[in-house]
Design a protein that fits this description.
Elements (H helix, E strand, L loop, with lengths): L1 E7 L4 H4 L13 H18 L4 E5 L3 H14 L4 E2 L16 H7 L21 H20 L6 E6 L1 H11 L19 E6 L6 E8 L1 H8 L1
Parallel strand pairs: 1-4, 2-3, 2-4
Antiparallel strand pairs: 1-5, 5-6
Helix pairs in contact: 2-3, 5-6
């Protein structure tokens, strides 16, 4: 049984500063570090004693989230630049108000895959192809280790959508409109069974580990 836990990095300074993320390399906030510890505890409970690999975007907010998980599981982290968030080009690090004033949203109908929201931004097609490439890399690196390997992938909010689509092998050409919500610190579980090789989304964007901590 192959399982992949997809983790959205926790709260980052760019969230607090109301800045556009993308490849803007912000660090986790103080709360983000606390949330990362809670994510690590949750995964430690699920994965203790299992055969595991951890992969992460190389941007600091994701890598810092992955480091907390790695410390809990006593495992190294493999950094993959292909797991980065979609690049917003010249908007990265700018305020949301700047983005709203200077970006061009994709059309409601027609071709959306090759639209650039602002100068030097990635298109959806380019982004999807990059995320699919990351998932192929992860699959190749884990395939030889164990059929029961459990993988942790730490990435970014919009990237989660394309990781899920890659898991279900939905072609990038069909992803012009799709968007699946992902919260900071949210966890999704993907699973493939050994007999039929059906692929499932067991749960998506689970944040109960964060909500329970707030209520304690």
């Amino acid at each position: 049984m192959h399982k992949i836990y997809v983790v959205t990095h926790t709260e980052s300074m760019h969230h607090l500063e109301q800045r556009v993320g993308g490849w803007y390399d912000a660090e986790l906030s103080a709360q983000g570090h606390q949330q990362a510890a809670l994510v690590a505890q949750r995964l430690g409970h699920n994965l203790s004693g299992k055969v595991c690999r951890i992969f992460s975007s190389d941007l600091r907010r994701a890598a810092q989230t992955a480091d907390a998980i790695a410390q809990q599981l006593h495992l190294p982290v493999t950094l993959l630049p292909d797991l980065r968030e979609m690049s917003y080009g010249e908007a990265e690090g700018k305020s949301h108000s700047w983005m709203n004033a200077n970006s061009i949203p994709p059309p409601q109908n027609g071709s959306r895959l090759d639209h650039r929201i602002c100068a030097r931004a990635e298109t959806r097609r380019e982004f999807a192809q990059r995320i699919f490439r990351a998932m192929e890399t992860i699959s190749a690196e884990t395939a030889a280790e164990s059929t029961d390997i459990e993988t942790v992938v730490v990435t970014h909010g919009f990237a989660v959508t394309f990781i899920l689509m890659a898991w279900f092998r939905i072609a990038p050409s069909e992803l012009g409109f799709v968007h699946i919500a992902a919260s900071p610190g949210g966890i999704s579980l993907l699973q493939e069974d050994d007999y039929y090789h059906n692929r499932s989304l067991c749960f998506q964007n689970d944040i109960t580990h964060l909500v329970q901590a707030r209520s304690d």
